[in-house]
Amino acid sequence: MILGLWEIILVFLISAAGSSLAILVYIKNPKERANQFFTFLVFSFLVWILSAFFSEIPKNLQYSLFFSRIAYAGVLLSAVFLFYFSFYFPRRKILKKEINYLMIGTSVIFTLVNLGSDLIIKDAVPVSWGFNLVFGKLYFPYLFFCVFAVFYAFKNFFSDFKKATKLERLQLGYLLLGFLIFAIASIIVNVIIRSIVGSDIYYRIGNYSGIFLVGLSGMAILKYHLFGIRVILTEILVGLMGIILFLQIIFAPTFQWKISTILTFLLFLIFAHYLLKATHEEERRREEAEKLAKREKKLRKEAEDLSFAKTQFLSIASHQLRTPLTAIKGYLSLILEEKYYGKIPEKMRKPVENLYLSTERLLKLVSVLLDVSRIESKKLELKLERCSLFEIIEEIVKLLEIEAQKKKIYLILEKPKEEISPILLDKEKIRQVFLNLIDNGIKYTEEGGVKIEILSLKNHVLVKVRDTGEGMEKEEIKKVFTPFYRGKTAEEIWTEGVGLGLYLAKLIVEMHGGRIWAFSEGKKKGSTFFVLLPKR
Ligand code: ADP
Hints:
By secondary structure, this protein is α+β, with helices and mostly antiparallel strands.
């Protein structure tokens, strides 16, 4: 006996939803084994549901028996296809040949025995609500086989749960949720309701809940908008409440009752709408945040790789350039001395001198590049020795005085007011820092000059290199210590610079545990560069 119109509608909906999902999954990826087995699984499930339904319709018990046997074949096929599905979802697993043959053999034998003999289902006998089945000798082995296949499938599904990615875990979560709903509904119907009602006329309701297993695993395969399980649970709960409220409207005994349940239902719909919207929104945000975090990590890694590649390239290139450049410079210097290669024709002297100067400039650039790459890749170690900062700077000033005189600007090193005791420094590297700062001061000053002050603070020595030249805008000050940065006016005044001097100076000063910074009141108002070095 079927349970009336409601059951017809329910069976129709389940068949429509199940077969469209099966087709959708198959179309999405027809070559994928997981998709194929899933489609078979759904159709076997539908065979089971529909045959069980049809077995209740006819008055003739022969038909009922026939449909019941087909329904049981559907049960076995569902279990077997779930078993095969589990070897391909969410990951591929190895299916041993023996197990495969055993599975196929047993399924074929049981199906043939089921459909062709009365060893599994013996007979259908009439009872007040329709009919009951009488089972044969092989019924329990048959059932045991189905249960075994389902257990094996779940063992498979969760076998590599630990190794699973986040998405795979979510997929498994969906599957498990579907199965739990199916199992709980079956227990409620087959055990609890059966013991209360005393008959199993409702058993099919338990079967129908299998659509949750089908639906949720279908979503898991399609991976279409896999929300967190929390969202799905909320949706199912809201759905169930909706159905219960709706049924109340239909079965309400009085008109007033109907009206009040309709009002409750409407209120519920509004509430459900907002609840679901909020849950989805929250989930979406969480997903977005996760995506952003992942992207950031990837970008950071890429930037690190790139920076490493750049440093590597600089280091190799400058190494390879240095040797031939040194040789060229050596030969040019010998030619210019006119001792070994004889007199240079007058016309050639200037070009050879230019060649020499250009090579020298290239060598300097190469050595700066090499220093930068060595510091960046942490290959450079400081050779610390105790030395007087004043003496280092004094030497540089003597060297650059000629340049200042050429430009008719002053270059003054103020005598410190108090004694500056020697500190631990890498002399050569610190020399490079101040050579660059003072050289810049002269380069970027046309009027006035450059003045250097050394101050002894409590734990530090502070050097100020102040010029009255080009000056810098606030924006420019922020950038001067970054690699390859060159100011606009700098590009006009000193075309040969590459914008590495201050960057290298910053790297060296920081390696000494010090700080370097710049100050300027603006364009044409001069600049001051500060270097703070720890006393140690
Ligand atoms: P380069 O001098 O080769 O361009 P630097 O790293 O030494 O490279 O300097 C970077 C930029 O900082 C310069 O191009 C210039 O714009 C600015 N700069 C450096 N020193 C001064 C200074 N004393 N006055 C004005 N601008 C300066």
